[in-house]
Amino acid sequence: MRDDGPCGEAGRVAGRSPGKGLGRRTFVAGLGALLSGVGRPLALMVLHAKLARAGVPEGYDPKQHRYAYGIDVDRCIGCGRCVEACKNENGVPKDSPYSRTWIERYEIREDGEVRVTSPEAGLHGFPPMEKDPAVTDAFFVPKMCNLCTHSACTQVCPVGATFDSPDGVILVDPNYCIGCAYCIQACPYGTRFMHPKTHTVDKCTLCYHRITRGLQPACVEVCPTQTRVFGDLKDPKSPILKFLRSHRLNVLKPHLGTKPQVSYANLRREVW
Amino acid sequence: MAFLIAAPIPLQAHLGHPLRAWEIMVTPNPKSAMAMFGFVYLWYLMAVLVLEMWFEYRADFVRLGRGPGLKGRFYRTLSLGVEEDSPDSILLDERISRVISVIGIPSAILLHGYVGFIFGSIKANPWWSSPIMPIIFIFSAMVSGIAAVMLIYWAVCRIKKVPVDIHCLDAIGTYLCYTFIIDFVLEALDFIHRIYEADESFDILSLLMQRRLFVSQFVVQFLIGTLVPILILLFLQLRKPQEALRRKLLLASATLTLVGIYAMRWNVVIGGQMYSKSFRGFTTWKLDLIGGEGILVAVLVACLPPPVPVAAAGSSSRPSTTPKRPRRKPWRPEGRGAFPHRSGRNAPSF
């Protein structure tokens, strides 16, 4: 049995009360339609304006793509070419301690102690390790924006200057960022920084101006060992699909529920 | 109100683009705790404090607005065209004020709790991420507010050259003592919880407390800024020494309390940014002398609010001496429980 409620049949049928101009239901429904009718296109317009400012070519539809990134820890030799290419490509000053991507060297001692270094973000590579028999393992780990599906940084931005593009890339609109640095605190991976010249927040964009033109990010392009793999999940021929299928993968800080789209192969437990 | 207006100035100075701050109000991100804080702040400032003060002083505005010259015009503008100052209208003002006060108390709790939420909701930072952070912030705001009320009362008495009422100081001291104990218990609970749970961030946080924050956390915040004032205040609840000594002890404990609360905020804000996000090491930070976040600007901002109430208290025209006004009970010291009823909810916080 259905309960028609106090309004009964009349309430369901009539959006317009007899003898009156605009009924309550019509008004609410109309307001909803107006808000979705105006709000949605407006939101899309704002998104497209933001993407255009990020250097997207005309005709690029972000909904046709879903980008992902893979890093094979065992392949990295710590040469630092990716860091250099990133700084060159994206105008991050080389004398600045900040970098959109960086390499960490882990030295594991037999007593379990871990030493992590990243001189100048690994820009000039790493000095040779001193011979120490107590060090049982050493490896390099490249780090960058983890392309979180549930990104804490976009959640906290007070003005919406940093946003999730529908293709999975997290971007910052430097013309709208107020420079409050709240997103820098909210990012669990420490991948954001205040750009010393623009005084707005800067981060890895996966070289958005390149990938939207069918190119690879600069770091992937120059990596001599194919440590870094990039691709479009919606493209069946993309190398990222092969990478994701052929490795045992892990992500950084999975307990935080950010669901990163940057997957690490052969990740050690010492890496957080 | 002077404190509340000065409060966002350091935030403004912190921004990379201060001129874009208005974006928070016109295009807020509804998911952002910081964006919503703008509205909570605005609500407390405009809907509570400004309205409350306007109703409190409306009759004065009307009276002073009848005067000649610029001063008269200034007060006529402040009275917003209302010229009624009959006893009935003043009674109505008082009733409306009371209603606003009732709304004001939960609003004040919301405001200070929300500051705690801005820190407590950052899951990336284990030093901040805590569900009781808002409650700790509320209580530390109450503690610092009560201590500041005591010091401001004493300072205003000195400036106006009226004797300090020791019963008033005693009463504020009682409030301070018990609120401070609750605040201390909450912070201790948070601290013990962290040690007992000892999650993946424990190693770096314990190193942080032992090395980087040892002086500001254990010495300044815990010993000098919490334990000593609580012990003094507890002693004064049990024994009543001579008035001069009592006054000195109370003022000293209020000063130490403010130092302790300042250290607590320092440890939360600065401490939370002192270690790397991979929990593998410490970051470096140097306090500038000049610049938006330098010492000079900090001193300037800290000096801004006091002249406002001091100027107001020193002004000869401000006290409502009109005998016909039944507006408010005059201040009568009544020993325990005697508390300036306006100071409680307007308590400045740091």
Q: Would you kindly provide a written description of the structure presented here, covering whatever features stand out?
A:
The complex is a heterodimer of chains A (272) and B (350). By secondary structure, chain A is of the alpha+beta class. Chain A is 27% helix and 18% strand. Chain A is elongated and about 90 Å long. The N and C termini of chain A lie far apart (57 Å). Chain B is built from 14 helices and no strands. In chain B, helix 4 crosses helix 5, helix 7 packs across helix 11 and helix 10 packs antiparallel against helix 11. Chain B is globular and about 70 Å long. The C terminus of chain B is likely disordered. Classes of the chains: A alpha+beta (272), B mainly alpha (350). At the A-B interface, helix 4 and helix 5 of A face helix 4 of B.
Segments of chain B where pLDDT lies below 50 for 5+ residues? 313-350
Number of helical runs of chain B? 14
- The quaternary structure here is heterodimer
Tell me the distance between the termini of chain B: 13 Å
Number of strands of chain B: 0
Count structural domains of chain B: 2
* Helical proportion of chain A, percent range: 25-40%
**CATH hierarchy: architecture of the largest domain in chain A:** 2-Layer Sandwich
Tertiary shape of chain B: globular
Average pLDDT score of chain B: 85
Q: Class of the largest domain in chain A, according to the CATH hierarchy?
A: Alpha Beta
**Helix and strand string of chain A, N-terminal first?**
HHEHEEEHEEHEEHHEHEE
Largest sheet of chain B: none
**N-to-C order of helices and strands of chain B:** HHHHHHHHHHHHHH
Structural class of chain B, please? Answer: mainly alpha
Average predicted confidence as pLDDT of chain A: 88
Structural class of chain A: alpha+beta
Tell me the domain tally of chain A. 2
Specify the overall morphology of chain A: elongated
List keywords for this structure.
heterodimer, A: 272 residues, alpha+beta, Alpha-Beta Plaits, four-stranded mixed beta sheet, three-stranded antiparallel beta sheet, 18% strand, disordered N terminus, B: 350 residues, mainly alpha, 2 domains, 68% helix, globular, disordered C terminus
